[in-house]
Amino acid sequence: MFANPFSLHRLGILGMNERNSRYVSRYNPRRLYPLVDDKLQTKQLLESSGINVPELVSTVKEQSQIEKLINFLPASSGFVIKPAKGSGGKGILVIQQVECNNRQFSYIKVNGDVVDINYLKRHCSNILAGLYSLGGKSDVAIVERIIEFDDTFSDFSYEGVPDIRVIVFKGYPIMAMMRLSTRASDGKANLHQGAVGVGIDIVSGKALHAVQFGKPVSEHPDTQRKLSELQVPNWDNLLLLASQCYDETGLGFLGADIVLDVRRGPLVLELNARPGLAIQIANGCGLKPRLQLIEKKVSTLKNKNLNAAQRVHFCMQAFDTSANGAITTAR
Amino acid sequence: MSNSRWPFYALIAILFFGGIFLSVYRHIEYQVPWMPGERLITWSVEARIELQADNEPTTVRLLRPLNQNNYSLLDESTASPGFGVAYLDEKNIIEWTKREAGGPQSLFYRATFLVNNEQESDKSKSPDVLSVVWSEPYQTAANQIVEQVNQRSAGSVSFAQQLFLALRENNENISLLKQEVPDEAELAVKLLNQNNISASLIYALKLEDGRRRQSLTTLVKVWFDGVNIDSDQSIVFDPTTGQRNIPEDYLLWSQTSKPILEVVGGFDSIVTFSIIKQRESIGAAIKAQQNLEENLINFSIHTLPLEEQALFKTILLLPVGALVVCLLRILIGLRTSGTFMPVLIALAFIQTSLMTGLVGFLLIVFFGLLLRSYLSRLNLLLVARISAVIITVIAIIAIFSVMSFKIGLVEGLKITFFPMIILAWTIERMSILWEEEGPKEVFVQGGGSLLTALLAYLAMTNDWVRHLTFNFLGIQLILLAFILALGNYTGYRLFELIRFKSMVDK
Fold this sequence. Notes:
The complex is a heterodimer.
Chain A: H1 5-10, H2 16-27, H3 33-37, H4 39-48, E1 56-60, E2 79-83, E3 93-101, E4 104-109, E5 114-115, H5 117-129, E6 141-145, E7 163-169, E8 172-180, E9 196-200, E10 207-212, E11 215-216, H6 235-249, E12 253-261, E13 265-272, H7 278-283, H8 288-301, H9 308-318, H10 321-330
Antiparallel strand pairs in A: 1-6, 2-3, 2-6, 3-4, 4-5, 7-8, 7-12, 8-9, 9-10, 10-11, 12-13
Helix pairs in contact in A: 6-9
Chain B: H1 2-30, E1 41-63, E2 71-79, E3 84-88, E4 93-115, H2 138-151, H3 156-167, H4 172-180, H5 184-194, E5 199-206, E6 217-223, E7 234-237, E8 250-254, E9 261-264, E10 266-279, H6 282-290, H7 306-315, H8 318-332, H9 341-352, H10 354-377, H11 382-407, H12 420-437, H13 439-461, H14 463-471, H15 474-487, H16 494-499, H17 501-505
Antiparallel strand pairs in B: 1-4, 1-9, 1-10, 2-4, 3-4, 5-6, 5-8, 6-7
């Protein structure tokens, strides 16, 4: 029932206590948290420095604006309404398509349900009242253009956009995982709700190993697609994007959630200052050797900082799957 | 990195060894035993007199307790700024005097009694029987009662026994007399005197650990009559129950019916009592008396007034609860709702007893969640919502208290010991958790909280732990050292060993 703690240590698996005291509290200054806890702030910060994010259509900030909500929504394309301070994917409403008959709009959700403008108004009102924000604080609703996600992934996900979580340590992308929603996870990309986590090779962007509910799986439980065939296109760009998030936020231990838009390429969805540890299970590999390697690298560089491209280059060489075992043992 | 950490480790070491040193010093120098129950039990009783002085010569006389069955007086002391103190031995009286006192005054008298099995023969002379005169219609009623009881009895003791039985009956005569003399004990003495039996009121204090602002209980002492029995023998009755002998755990404060407190030159006087139980050797008790002046090294809570000591007895247990929470969260990885909420719940359990506490807690949280689910539909602002939940919790507590009292469950009244604000926050948290993560997470965290509270309760009610934390302040430093060291722990949690199990199996 219990794993031997010494074998976990030998695998270099990072525990919650060590994550909190050695990494989160050391590398993430508290004052930077608001940057990532408010998605609107994150978005504006990243956008102003040229990092691609889902296109912001409008923000609804006051209850009085809800009466004219129709003016805030795109008239022809799909869109997403989400709370700025929501967590764990709560309160996110995805409208796939908008139809207009006789100046009467109807909105089609991902699962095919058709809703009207009053439904959207109520949803926005709930967001502003703080229904989805932590501690019920009043919030802002963000309207984003929908992500048209790559068809290559359509078999890998059930009713939801798969996203890629990259752990970025001091600006170095050290581990990545793709989260695929399933019927069990109700279309959400949350691992503890039953989404599949697929470890992605930092070097190639190919799937390494996949888990659902902490147990290894080889194919998607709903679509039966072989997970080993998964290959993230445009992988270098994606890592570069994740790496740049460090330069903009200053958070040393960061989880970047990235989605792939078919036209605009990788987009940063949100950032997390306390990334979870499940990524280790999805990769079948511990974070610690990689963290230590980067710490050593940064200390040998002294004050000479590498730029994002150089950092990605370093990681792609250091974390070559063939060299992967070498790091673990050479520690 | 290891360089910058060493002052921290040194601090932990200093705290740890400092704590050990203080405890060992206290053990050796003051003979405080490591184990509870190893030595004798003493009760410290403190009388606190408060009065308003009149700006004129003030005299305060307080009766003080003497050696008696099962309790021997170890030492006594007073604290009374500016007053002259005299122990008047023959009269069992302590007297404070001051030429000119004005405004509110506080006087303290403290006595320590050792619990033993020595029997002290009580040789107090029977007081003279006072002649009893009633006005009508009370005279007739009293005569009737005495007559009835007399027929049912054979001597003074059986008369008294029957009288106490009669006093609890609901008949017209009794209720009539109770209008004239509302106090049962006083009424009994009057009726006993009427039948020519000598009796007097005496006062006793119920010994309960950690009690503050207590008052005395009135008992009735009845002397034997008759020719063949020694006329100085007496027996004590509890007027509320009619039981013979002094109830267990009662310390007789005064053996005569004289007033406990007499004040000349003051008004609004009141005397209240605080009680605390200690375990110390006789040697230490005597030594502590001698060392009263050099208290700097004798770093002990025992030098505080009893009232504050009783408070500290609970406060000093809190670090133990905090340590339990640290262990469970850092080493086990148990999830609780609210970090130290379980400790406060455990404190409430100490006051309510475990079963009552558990049932009460579950009831309050359950009904609180029901009501909160309605409130959540109203989309209220946070502060207003919590305030509403607090009022709801108070209402639930009130309803349960009244209901359980009506059914006859006095245990239910203890529900009021729960910290209401904390409970309201718990309900609020759990309700949010329910909405965001679903009922499973509520049970996980609620169960975790209850388990933590239970373990903290067990640790905090352990006799040995209570003994150590109260008698050895050094233990607090050791606890602090442990908690600091735990804060530095970066190893795996027990639950993570399960979570990452699949990675090792590969």
